[in-house]
Each structure stands twice: as structure tokens, then as C-alpha cells.
Known about the structure:
There is one protein chain. The chain is an alpha+beta fold. Helix content is 32%, strand content 21%. It is globular and about 50 Å long.
Amino acid sequence: MPLPAFHSGGEWEKVGRDGRNSPTTPMFRGAAKVTLDDKGRMVLPTRYRERLLDRSGGQLIVTVDRDGQCLLLYPLTDWEPVEKQLMALPTLDPQSRRLQRLMVGHATDLPLDGHGRILLTQELREFAGLQRHAMLIGQGNRCELWDETRWMERRDGWLKDEAAANELPAHLDSLSL
Length: 177
């Protein structure tokens, strides 16, 4: 008896660990207090951990933010296109080189361990001024990691500036919140 013929349905597509399509909606939302231990390990909140495992097998890239205030955490699959764009910038342009040196030069592969932790290097912790208490701020395809005190000061400053501003810039006029 001949075996039934099956059609694969076309092109291959990337799927998560459960066999379903990888999430296309932003994976990092909200703010979470986190703690760094004496070795610089941080437990990733559960709500992010499962999505990170599905999206990039637990592989994170951590780099510095260009303003020098925080660290940026990307799933490997979301970092790769950013890195490609950065490296495509003209190398003779001083601002492009500065951005490449900062963001790609500090980019560090950090796997999620069996306890859901990442080990931040001393250099990254020093760059962002991270102490024991920190804030993880979801930003769609990435997170920002701030020292808690620095985050509270910056957040309060932004809220104060926003309250003082009378008009939105033109590119924000169509934003409906």
C-alpha cells in the first residue's frame, strides 16, 4: 500500500521551542525590580524568561546604551539585525564609529543559566553604575537595565519635563494613547 503524499506547505519558517511561530508582538513590557547578587548575577523575571527561551534559546546580548545611563538587553535574534545595521554605517564618519565602538564593542553574549539568571560582567555593571538594586524596563524587542536610584531620578525628571511641556513635537501629534 503506497504511503500518502504530504505537502510541507512551502518555505521553512522559524518556530519557537514549542513548534509554534516565534512571537511577533513585543516581548518586553513593563517595569520590574530586580536584584544583582555579589557575583553580578540577575534573575530574569519569569514573564520574560519563557519568551526569551522560545525566541532565542535563552541567548541574550547585553550592550551599553549610547547615553551611558543603562544597559540594553536583546534576545540574540533581535540583536543580529541591529548589529548588522550598525556595522553597515560608514566607518569614516566619527559618530558612526563612536556608536559602533560603544554598542558593538561592548556587546556581550550572556546565556541564561538553568536558574534563569544571567551573569553581568564587571565592565558592564560599572558602565551602568549598577548596584544591588536595579530596574528592568521593557522596551518592546529589548529591555533596559538601570540602577534603581538612577532610574527613579531619570523617570521623575522626565515626568517633570513632560508636565512642563505645553506642546508635543509634530511627529507625536498622531499618537493616540
